[in-house]
């Protein structure tokens, strides 16, 4: 039995290329190029495995280049629930520069037909999740309602669902009457589906409205400006930690992993805020879906500055104390 299962419908092999500076239209000489099995749910599962949580990952992979995924799952002891399909998983190019700026070039994924989804639900059922993470983009061939349909189905089965999607799939999910357990958009993703969010007070009001409508945990990530957390315990703001940035790719997925880790230990809202912020900061120090050692992440969590959301709005953002 696996307590946490992640679902990735549009995985990718992430090719991270390091440059001194990206100048469009010019020829560049890269310092390095590193390939990692990726996709949002894969990244979440990998970080959870580093934390020591029992986790499985499922979805669809192209059989033609499955080796990086099988190696990652074996090395991290992630349960491999992926369904293999003819063809190859897409490759995404991540161009990184000193200071953490990253330029993404994402290729289209394997087309997935809707008649494959019953097989996926059967695979999820066999993994027996208590917490199901649905995250990432949709491949060609699937309706934007797919994530909302899956969330509704599994919550009716008594499974808690954490949703991390954007655009039309997020809009569809937020329009449903069924209650989501947790959702983690960033500010821009939330504004794209809910309307303009002119300031932090409006952002807090929107997050609280989602919670009142039945979403148990609402987390709005603000990138380098921290994150907002709303649950029945109240509303908190977590300041960003000042860490050396190697790559920002997957930091949001690491935050989701931190939320899952906290949920698995029935953590308080403050602990969830500290842990998810620390996961994201730890991931910034790594290329690929990896965390620093557990004791380092706990040290980061202890250093996170937390404020009541109202104080954050009234007095301005806090700054993290940790640096490296």
Account of the protein in words:
The protein is 37% helix and 23% strand. With 324 residues, it is of the alpha/beta class. It has one domain (4-8, 40-88, 111-315): 3-Layer(aba) Sandwich (UDP-N-acetylmuramoyl-L-alanine:D-glutamate ligase). The strands form two sheets. The chain has a ten-stranded mixed beta sheet, with helices on both faces. A four-stranded mixed beta sheet has the order 3-2-6-7. Strand 11 (217-221) and strand 12 form a beta hairpin. Helix 4 runs parallel beside helix 5.
Q: Topology, pairings included?
A:
Elements lengths: L3 E5 L3 E7 L13 E7 L1 H12 L3 E8 L4 H10 L2 E7 L4 E7 L5 E4 L11 H11 L3 E5 L10 H11 L3 E5 L2 H8 L7 E2 L3 H8 L5 H13 L4 E5 L5 E5 L2 E5 L12 H14 L4 H16 L9 H10 L2 E3 H7 L9
Parallel strand pairs: 1-4, 1-8, 2-6, 4-5, 8-9, 9-10, 10-11
Antiparallel strand pairs: 2-3, 6-7, 11-12, 12-13, 13-14
Helix pairs in contact: 1-8, 4-5, 5-6, 8-9, 9-10
Give a quick precis of the structure:
Catalyzes the ATP-dependent phosphorylation of fructose-l-phosphate to fructose-l,6-bisphosphate. The chain is of the alpha/beta class and about 325 residues long. About 35% of the residues lie in helices and about 25% in strands.
Say which CATH homologous superfamily is assigned: Ribokinase
Largest sheet descriptor:
10 strands, mixed
Which architecture per CATH? 3-Layer(aba) Sandwich
- CA(first)-CA(last) distance: 39 Å
What form results from the Cα inertia axes?
Answer: globular
Strand arrangement within the widest β-sheet reads: 5-4-1-8-9-10-11-12-13-14
Computed structural class: alpha/beta
Integer-rounded radius of gyration: 19 Å
> Strand content of the residues, in percent?
15-25%
């Amino acid at each position: 039995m696996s307590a946490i299962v992640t679902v990735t419908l549009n995985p990718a092999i992430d090719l991270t290329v390091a440059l001194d500076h990206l100048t469009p239209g010019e020829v560049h000489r890269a310092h390095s190029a590193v390939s990692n099995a990726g996709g949002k749910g894969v990244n979440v599962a990998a970080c959870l495995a580093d934390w020591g949580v029992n986790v499985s990952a499922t979805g669809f992979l192209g059989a033609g280049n499955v080796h990086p995924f099988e190696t990652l799952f074996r090395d991290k002891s992630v349960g491999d629930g992926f369904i293999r399909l003819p063809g190859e998983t897409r490759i995404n190019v991540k161009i990184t520069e000193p200071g953490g700026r990253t330029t993404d070039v994402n290729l289209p994924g394997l087309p997935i037909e809707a008649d494959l989804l019953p097989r996926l639900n059967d695979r999820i059922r066999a993994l027996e999740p208590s917490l199901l993470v649905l995250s990432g983009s949709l491949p060609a061939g699937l309706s934007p309602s797919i994530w909302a349909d899956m969330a509704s189905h599994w919550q009716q089965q008594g499974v808690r669902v954490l949703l991390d999607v954007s655009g039309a799939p997020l809009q569809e999910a937020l329009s449903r009457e069924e209650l989501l357990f947790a959702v983690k958009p960033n500010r821009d993703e939330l504004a794209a589906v809910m309307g303009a969010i002119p300031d932090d007070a409006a952002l807090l009001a929107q997050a609280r409205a989602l919670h009142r409508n039945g979403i148990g945990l609402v987390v709005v990530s603000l990138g380098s400006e921290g994150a907002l957390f709303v649950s029945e315990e109240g509303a908190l703001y977590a300041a960003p930690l000042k860490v050396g940035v190697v790559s920002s790719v997957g930091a949001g997925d690491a935050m989701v992993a931190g939320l899952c880790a906290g949920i698995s230990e029935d953590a308080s809202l403050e602990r969830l805020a500290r842990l998810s912020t620390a996961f994201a900061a730890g991931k910034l120090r790594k290329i690929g879906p990896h965390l620093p050692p557990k004791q380092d992440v706990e040290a980061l969590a202890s250093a996170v500055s937390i404020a009541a959301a109202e104080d954050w709005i009234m007095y301005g953002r806090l700054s993290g104390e940790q640096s490296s």
